[in-house]
Amino acid sequence: MSKVKTAYYCQNCGFQSLKWMGKCPSCGEWNTLVEEIVNKDNKKKSSIPVNTANIKLIHEITAQEQERFVTSDEELNRVLGGGIVPGSLILFGGEPGIGKSTLMLQTALQNPLRVVYVSGEESEQQILLRAKRIKHQNSECYIVNETVIQNLLPIIEQLKPQLVIIDSIQTLTTNVLESAPGSVSQVRECAAEIMKVAKTSHIPFFIIGHITKDGSLAGPKVLEHMVDTVLQFEGDQHYLYRILRTTKNRFGSTNEIGIYEMQGTGLRQVSNPSEILINQRDEDVSGVAIATILEGNRPLMVETQALVTTSAYATAQRSATGFDLRRLSMLLAVLEKKYGLKLYQKDVFVNIAGGLKVEDPATDLALAAAITSSNYDIPISQRYCFSAEIGLTGEIRPVNRIEQRISEAEKLGFEKIFISQSNFKSLSHTSSYKIQVIGVNKLESMFQKLFKG
Ligand code: TYD
Ligand code: MG
């Protein structure tokens, strides 16, 4: 086998060098030189005749409706846009320990497919232990402990699997490059090899990818451009809930999310998350209000909690878990200025129950209600929920997809939902709801309804 020629290229300016250097002598950037394969055949290309088979008018292309494989995991199907598309490349990222390997092994074991699970991260014994916890047996799941891509591809060719899972791309290496596994050039070369196989053999590939400290997928950005779908597994390791999202999907919407709960026997699909995110209490307590938010396309009811206490120190403490602290400061300022709550000498702690991080501005109204409820120590009924944004002037602003939010609250048996007046006006048939829909245009009038007396 002839040795493949490689050279080091600066990723910033394109400078080429035969040796690795810490600093690019051309542009002066540090650590930008990366080993790449030198394509010696460049000159030959010009003499190749044009391949007309690759050129078509758009109406000449025959549409082939791609038959998706619908897995037993409804959350995964939904996030992928209705199942796994043959020949698709799916990059699956997430922090260490979040449950990527668990979800993939579950997919391998709970579907009647011939699966090749390539593991460079764990030994066969470790995978067996995990498989035993998951307790589902697929007799055609092959575990392959091979990390050199040139050795792996013949195995895949021979086994002809219907699904391949690579755990993880950072452990794969190609023997044409000398750089360490996980380096930019290794990841890119391996992914390119995998893509060629996926597109010619129509085998779908799941590729697990590590995440860097700042939350982006480790390795080159080009990886995200190459694949068809990018999945992200999120959640706080200390809480049980995990959210599966897509940040890119060539075969479906990126608005869908999947929710799982980590149990002793693997990840369980959570089909009705609202019921779990709300604590069931026997009596109403102060400082709690329920918000109807949207996560992707899915309406969720989340419990917002607030604790307002007299501060022991000169500067009051403000702390938020699962909610943006700056947004909390803004809400407190609005409550103080527009509603006259005296909060400057009070410590305010807010929390979103269930370890969820909410970004939907529709949480504002519930949180303002929870803070006020805690301040006066008057409980709000657990049968009420809230969905509106609060502006700097204290106005109650409309939020998107209000019908969907109302339906979710109605489905779960809530009595009243407080929304903005302009959202309320846009509704065509408020009388047909079983839930009482209340439009509010001022915090004051809503608080009077909630805490009168
Ligand atoms: P893992 O899938 O190894 O995470 P990743 O591949 O993303 O790094 O999951 C690791 C965690 O999941 C581990 O801390 C243990 C926990 N876990 C359970 O709680 N129950 C289970 O059934 C399994 C298999 C794992
Ligand atoms: Mg893992």
Characterize this entry briefly.
The chain is of the alpha/beta class and about 450 residues long. It has helices spanning about 75-80, 100-110, 125-135, 150-160, 185-200, 220-225, 275, 325-340, 365-375, 400-410, 420-425, 445-450; strands at about 5-10, 15, 35, 90-95, 115-120, 140-145, 165, 205-210, 230-235, 240-250, 255-265, 265-270, 290-295, 300-310, 320, 345-350, 385, 390, 395, 415-420, 435-440.
3D architecture notes:
The protein has 453 residues and is α/β, with parallel strands linked by helices. The chain folds into three domains: 37 residues; 200 residues, P-loop containing nucleotide triphosphate hydrolases (Rossmann fold), CATH 3.40.50.300; 176 residues, Ribosomal Protein S5, domain 2. It is 26% helix and 25% strand. A nine-stranded mixed beta sheet has the order 6-5-7-8-4-9-10-11-12, with helices on both faces. A seven-stranded mixed beta sheet has the order 15-16-14-13-17-20-21. The protein has a three-stranded antiparallel beta sheet with strand order 2-1-3, with no helix packed on it. Helix 11 links the parallel strand 20 and strand 21. The mean pLDDT is 87. It binds thymidine-5'-diphosphate (TYD) and magnesium ion (MG). Magnesium ion binds next to helix 2.
